[in-house]
Amino acid sequence: MAIKLGEVVEGTITKITNYGAFVDLPDGKRGLVHISEVSQDFVKDINDFLKERQKIKVKILAISPDNRKIDLSLKQVSSESDAKINTGAKVDNNDRKFKHEPKTIRRYNHAGNSAFEEMLSRFMKTSEEKLTDLKNNIESKRGGTVKKQY
């Protein structure tokens, strides 16, 4: 069975480095899941997501002309299974590699707007005063005259 571009295959992680994970694929081929293709989230340490000898499903992103380099993606497989869930297709929970926690949605209170506007007004006033002082200081060092702003 030859692997094809865009295909999702199952492989076994053989080695983990700080830049990615090497995966043994069917037919004795070996590919690399770059650290940027492990998860939708920021991956500081790949060992937090993957372990050696772990079986994973990966998508074939690129195959070099001489078949020596195969680029793989884990996050594209997980995003495809998320898409199946969103469209109502049946997906086994074992197919999902990462469990994403729902993000909290911040709701703003309209009653708090007056407090915010007051803070903003104070900030703007203070900023204007500081800029005027800075301009006066610079002009006095140059020996020029400064018009007073009211």
- Give the biggest beta sheet: 5 strands, mixed, barrel
Order of helices and strands: EEEEEHH
Distance between the termini: 81 Å
Radius of gyration from the alpha-carbon trace, in angstroms: 28 Å
Briefly note the structural class of the backbone: alpha+beta
Order of strands, main sheet, comes to: 1-2-3-5-4
Percent of sequence in beta strands: 15-25%
Mean pLDDT: 78
Q: Please state the overall shape, judged from the principal axes of the Cα atoms.
A: elongated
Number of helices: 2
Helix content: 25-40%
Which oligomerization state do the chains in this entry correspond to? Answer: single chain
What are the segments in which pLDDT stays under 50 over at least 5 consecutive residues? 83-109
**Quantity of strands, as a count:** 5
Outline the structure in words.
This protein is α+β, with helices and mostly antiparallel strands and 150 residues long. 28% of the residues lie in helices and 22% in strands. It contains 2 helices and 5 strands; from the N terminus they run βββββαα. It has helices at 75-86, 113-142, and strands at residues 8-17, 20-24, 30-34, 55-63, 70-73. The chain has a 5-stranded mixed barrel. A hairpin with a 2-residue loop joins strand 1 and strand 2 (20-24). The longest helix is centred in the C-terminal third of the chain and has 30 residues, at 113-142. The protein starts with 7 loop residues before the first strand and ends in an 8-residue tail after the last helix. Residues 83-109 have low confidence and may be disordered.
